[in-house]
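Kindly review both lines to help learners:
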Amino acid sequence: MGYAFQWVRSLIFVGLMYLMMAILGILLAPFAILSVRGAYFAVHLYCRWVRWSARWIAGLRSEIRGTPPTGEVLLAPKHQSFFDIIMIVSVIPKPKFIMKSSLVYAPVLGQFAKRIGCIPVDRGRGAEAVSQMVKGVMREGAPKGQLVIYPQGTRVAPGADKPYKIGTYVLYEKTGQTVVPAATNVGVFWPRTGIYRKPGLAVVEFLDPIEPGLDRDRFMAKLEDVVERHSNALMREAGFDPEA
């Protein structure tokens, strides 16, 4: 009975989440067209609404730990589900993402992503994709803000093992910017696919920044160590053993 009730709660929440995306997207589109500030207002409002509704409809609370970055930095978080995107965007002032190119065509989401400066990349095309990413980031007139790149390149389920890709280091070297790693346990509660949302406390934790100047091997080793170690600790806190 408990599982069935939670499944219904989850279904209601997911339905309202996409309905609100459409409603806010239509209502706030004129403000986003007029100014990038209007687009930021829209995405912040939506993400904060999702966090609020996840708590009160599905019983999924969310918490930000550490200090969200506000300056010109690269943000390299663990990516487990759509909810870690929601949580990150809800607290950083000028978010933009390295995203898969197919999302450009997603209704509402794609239009707002382009407006705030997200950079579409054809994943799976190796060096060509990296070059495409660098050109998008370094182009003249690219919006300032916090650029989010997922070090593993995609969502990774709790307990799954996927290698860290070189793209984060390439941007770290090319831009000379600080990288802020982030850990999460959201996949324990909000899976990569499906409707069911498990009640509990989802956490995104911003970690100590990695300053410019490290070589590739030292940077990649440090990034993977801190993100995986802290994410594993958060998952254990949530009752999931990632090494079981």
Notes: The CA atoms of residues 69 and 140 lie 23 Å apart. The chain has a mean pLDDT of 92. The first strand starts at residue 60 and ends at 65. The chain has one domain: 61-237.
